[in-house]
Design goal:
Strand order of the largest sheet: 1-2-3-5-7-10
Helix content: 40-55%
Structural class: alpha/beta
Length: 282
């Protein structure tokens, strides 16, 4: 179990296997819809997990059987959140700057998932609307249950998605025509379609089966050299946003330091001696 304290009202953080953390969204009576405090807490959780030496892989899940998340709690946002701020200032410029700051704060909290040094596996089920896409497109691996229903919902509530979907989904190696279709129409798509276009890599028959698969995957990742795994994640994300030449140069720079780790020797010897390697905490 990780040594750090993880206590949050709407999130359950558990450690189901050595070096594996599970972050469970926990507001099932509201379909795990997000209120403002949940955004802030989510960012804090992933920034903490990123540097926790007792964590090497993270699973993002949600409580209840009906929903991963239905997205933004629109009613709460209209009363207390960014939607309510539209009436705080009479001057349009000041109003715009206030709203922009609020959006950027939310973006930073969601980006904390992508910036987490440890690989993050999203395990979705049921209703997975709006913010569900924003969050999981930040994750490294996405799997889901057969009953998952996805939607980039923001157009249907009168706005353009501004927390990451429209920026990250076109870079998620899925067809751009399909991305534009689902974002512009806000239509639902199911697990089979998500698998067909490559938004998820695995579909399981149930939530419990998907959770079991995610835990198996996370446990496997956590058994490997944290230096190797975290460096691999860093370079994959860097290469997504840069040219091939830039990516090659970046891995050369990174490995000029990382190849000096004792993990390389431990991994090689374990292969030769057919034994399970152990790696020091990072």
């Amino acid at each position: 179990m990780a040594s750090a304290d993880y206590t949050y009202e709407h999130f359950n953080i558990t450690f189901p296997s050595q070096y594996v953390a599970q972050v469970e969204i926990n507001r099932p009576k509201k379909l795990n819809a997000f209120i403002e405090q949940m955004w802030t807490d989510l960012g804090a959780i992933f920034r903490q997990l990123s540097v926790d030496p007792d964590v090497r892989a993270v699973i993002l899940t949600a409580a209840g059987d009906r929903a991963f998340t239905s997205g933004l709690d629109v009613q709460a946002a209209s009363q207390n959140g960014v939607l309510a701020q539209q009436t705080e200032h009479a001057d349009p410029a000041r109003k715009a700057l206030s709203i922009r700051r609020h959006i950027l704060e939310f973006q930073r909290d969601i980006t904390a998932i992508e910036e987490c040094e440890k690989p993050v596996i999203a395990m979705m089920h049921g209703i997975s609307y709006g913010l569900a896409i924003d969050m999981t497109v930040c994750c490294d691996i996405r799997i889901c249950a057969e009953d998952t229903r996805f939607s980039v919902r923001e157009v249907d509530i009168g706005l353009a998605a501004d927390i990451g979907t429209l920026t990250r989904l076109p870079k998620a190696n899925v067809p751009l025509s399909w991305v534009k279709e689902v974002c512009l129409t806000a239509r639902d798509f199911d697990a089979a379609e998500a698998l067909r276009v490559g938004f998820v890599s695995t579909v399981c028959e149930s939530k419990s089966a998907a959770l079991k698969k995610a835990l198996e995957m996370a446990t496997l990742l956590a058994s490997k050299s944290p230096v190797a795994v975290q460096s691999t994640k860093q370079i994959l994300n860097y290469s997504r946003d840069h040219s091939v030449a830039d990516g090659l140069n970046q891995i050369a720079l990174l490995n000029s330091a990382m190849l000096q780790t004792k993990d390389v020797e431990a991994a090689m010897l374990s292969g030769l001696k057919k034994r399970k390697p152990t790696f020091a905490k990072l």
